[in-house]
Amino acid sequence: MKRLVITFAFVLSVLGLKAADITTISNAFKGGNASSLTAVMDSEVDIAIPGTTKKSNAAGAVSALNSFFSSNKPSGFSVVHHADKKENGFFVGKLVTADNSFRVNVTYRTDGDKAIIQSIRIE
Question: 20 to 30 A Cα–Cα from 76, which one of 8, 23, 34, 85?
Answer without folding.
Answer: 85
